[in-house]
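Bumping my old thread because nobody answered last time. Still need a sequence for this structure:
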């Protein structure tokens, strides 16, 4: 393993949540008078922290989302997660192999701490992380595409950025990892490869990830 830390995004990388959350986000924004299709939500908001959703809606419509938007949206998402959420196929095996090899890993997500924990507990992945290896955009001033979250995670884990690999499935996440000076690998199961083309490597099955992380070709 040529890295001292592997940083995983959560939504779409650890848990199969993007289709659920973007379906609900599109429906809620439309309900509030901001017509949004599922495809619009994927394009504009996938990988975003909540503040970016507020900023884009205000910029485009001149109207602010209601004060209880985040609470209402997360309530709907958590209810759906508990009914529908599953781990990404093969990711538990990847985490178990990293642990067996003694390679530290963590999660750094644009989602809130509550959202990350609900997702990991629902899918049975929580015990593969633990409290000290979970980082949220709530921990920093700016979410992705700013590098702050990844830099914060690396600092807390005691690893310099250049020794970190990031696993992402969104253009915003890839941009953030590159800005942090980290190698990033793009998971293309849901995102078109062309949108993640600036990543160091791309993969469509989790079983492919370890080969990318251990390759000596840089």
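Sorry it took so long. Here it is:
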């Amino acid at each position: 393993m040529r890295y001292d830390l592997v940083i995983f995004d959560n939504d779409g990388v650890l848990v199969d949540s993007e289709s659920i959350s973007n379906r609900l986000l599109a429906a809620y924004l439309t309900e509030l008078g901001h017509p949004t299709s599922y495809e619009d939500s994927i394009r504009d908001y996938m990988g975003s922290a909540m503040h970016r959703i507020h900023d884009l809606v205000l910029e485009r419509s001149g109207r602010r989302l209601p004060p209880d938007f985040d609470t209402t949206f997360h309530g709907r998402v958590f209810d759906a997660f508990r009914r529908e959420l599953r781990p990404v196929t093969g990711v538990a095996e990847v985490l178990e192999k990293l642990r067996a090899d003694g390679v530290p890993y963590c999660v750094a997500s644009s989602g809130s701490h509550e959202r990350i924990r609900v997702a990991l507990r629902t899918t049975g992945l929580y015990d593969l992380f633990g409290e000290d290896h979970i980082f949220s955009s709530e921990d920093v001033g700016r979410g992705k595409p700013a590098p702050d979250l990844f830099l914060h995670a690396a600092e807390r884990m005691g690893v310099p950025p250049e020794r970190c690999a990031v696993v992402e499935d969104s253009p915003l996440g890839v941009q953030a990892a590159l800005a942090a000076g980290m190698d990033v690998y793009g998971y293309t199961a849901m995102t078109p490869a062309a949108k993640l083309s600036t990543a160091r490597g791309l993969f469509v099955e989790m079983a492919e990830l370890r080969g990318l992380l251990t390759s000596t070709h840089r």
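The radius of gyration is 17 Å. Let me know if any region looks off to you.
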